[in-house]
Amino acid sequence: MSRTALIVGTLGSTLMVSAQAHHSFRAQYDAEKPIEVTGYVTKIDWMNPHVYFYIDVVNAQGKTESWAFEMGPPHMLEQRGWKRNSMAIGDELEVSGTRARDGSLSANARTVKLRATGQILGAASSEGQTITQGTTQGAGSGSPPAR
Amino acid sequence: MASRSVRKRCAVAAVAAAAVAAAVLSLLPAGAQPAAEPGEPAAKPIPRNADGTVSFAGTKDDVGNWEGPPGTSLANNVSADALAPNRLNLPTNLSVADVPFQPWARELYDQRQATFTKDDPHTRCKPSGGARLFHTPYGFEILQLADAQEIMFLPVGSPHSWRVVHMDGRALPENPAPSWYGMSVGRWEGDTLVIDTVGFNERFWISREGVPHTAQLRTTERISRPRFEQLRYEITIDDPGAYTKPWSGGWNIPWSAGNEPFDYLCQDNNLDPARMVGPQE
Amino acid sequence: MRHCRVAALLLVAALAGCDRGSDSADAGRPTPRHPDGQVRFDSEPGGRGYWGQASVGSLFEKGVQVAIDENGLLANIADAPRVAPFQPWALALYEHRQRNGLKDDPTRACIAPSGPRHLHTAGGFRIIRDPTYDRMYVLFGGGNRNWRVVFMDGRQPPNPEEVSGTYFGHQAGHWEGDTLVVESSGYNARFWFSNGGLPHTEALRLTERFSRPDFETLKYEVTVDDPLTYTRPWTAEWTVDWVDGGEIAERFCEDHRDDLAQSELGSVGE
Hints:
The structure holds three protein chains of three kinds.
Chain A: H1 3-15, H2 25-28, E1 29-45, E2 52-58, E3 64-70, H3 74-78, E4 92-100, E5 106-114, E6 120-122
Parallel strand pairs in A: 3-5
Antiparallel strand pairs in A: 1-2, 1-4, 2-3, 4-5, 5-6
Chain B: H1 4-27, E1 64-66, H2 103-114, E2 140-145, E3 150-155, E4 163-166, E5 183-189, E6 192-198, E7 218-227, E8 230-238, E9 247-257, H3 272-275
Parallel strand pairs in B: 4-5
Antiparallel strand pairs in B: 1-9, 2-3, 3-4, 5-6, 6-7, 7-8, 8-9
Chain C: H1 2-19, E1 49-54, H2 80-83, H3 88-99, E2 125-129, E3 135-140, E4 147-151, E5 170-176, E6 179-185, E7 205-214, E8 217-225, E9 234-244, H4 257-262
Antiparallel strand pairs in C: 1-9, 2-3, 3-4, 5-6, 6-7, 7-8, 8-9
């Protein structure tokens, strides 16, 4: 990377408005513990102050674990490409995020990829992380097909 | 990929440039229209109310509100294991070492920081006066009601309530009943809104970082709009119960273009209190 | 003949005065207005005040005679079917809530007493016009001292399939003469929109009509349209008195929520 590009990139990131949360990210999540899982949606709580969704993940030992992920508040997500029906029970997701400090199977989501459509949506609710606009991969763009 | 030393020099240069920019912005007199750099679009004029006072709102064609920056703090915590001072903090903010804490207050502040502010009452949906409203995310409106001689602050975030500042020249009460927002009276000093508040209870934190306060707290807030896109917020903490003398701090608040008030209720499904465990040994 | 003509003229004049309501000699102080003529729902310049006591304590269909106290409790549970045109499941739920003494009321966890219920919640409220944008706000002194925003720019509600239901709904307002009409939809079902526990679903649509026939009086009419809960739309109405010179005191439901969590309510709260 050229020196110029690195300076511009750094200044750009300092000028972008960071994602917002009403609580201390650090008190709940450990930035040293990133995580990526793939699983199937079992529950969605589209509520304030944070949307939570739950997915069943098969771990390396072949055991099914239930993971909880936190995202931002519904309105902020709906302004950033999410719809209330963007994900549904049974959808397969790839989720990247940051693990909870309390040792539970839960994390703060950073991005969510909807496997069926390839759509990637930003979900960060944590301080200091920029809510990504997300990108759409695969055929077509826009929202998943109506159910 | 550039070498490690080059990346380090570049990062230092970037942080320094941002700090210089912030310092320049903060030094602009309130109400000034900064000249545009050659090739840049002209700075947006700052709207004014019919009575000539600065408007803190947008315009019919330029809707938006103020997005409280969550990472800001009244004091700069520059200790080795702290988060770096937020770039939006005022350049005049004290470092924590220079804040005139009473010993118990410093001890409590350190404990709140060490536990990553996990006990913040605001995250339990409690109303929070003082500076806390000004770094609550999701946006807040400022309504300047000339007929009612009031200025109102309407944050979307917890607790989705409204704070009143009386602009009718009334005196502050001598023995106010303690409340979450206190009793506020305001006046203009040029283009700066100055708000005096007394009568706080002790059931909340006056800022996210957890600087303590007591019921003796009196605050003076100064709010100005150096640029259309920037609100400058500074608060003076005068609390002999917690500090040996008054001190001040604050931050710049960015304009959130297009943002509108929306529905938000902290009590809906708040799982945070049980999940904010702080550092785990 | 001449006397008849004079009498007719007097009658016409009297009727014309009645039509203008607030300007007639029998009304209170006239309806205050903004310089542009729009009705002012807040105090006059230099004045103070807020909307206080409602003329009835709870929400029930207009024209029905029932004994309901200011907490929404029926004096006689047998009156339940007459309160509103319930679907059978909704009547059963309403009766259950009433028989339980309203103990499952979400306001105990400081969930907002949203919808028309706010006007039956002690603490008062104000209706403010935004000085810059096409909006009105209702600021509540009761419940957890929340506010609701009414957009006056003619925007359409979002698709409820795509946007989550909220506690205050999507609110769009317009004027019909001197009446502020607010149409709202997009509610969730996690609150009680009446203090007596009348049920609703996410299909709820409300049409509220606010008018100020004289300085001291707010006239409020609400039409409830929720075909999943009620067999037809139905309307309720009441008036609210202006508290001249008063200021809404700062009170939050959160003042005592933690105490409630310690009580027999069990898991309500944290």
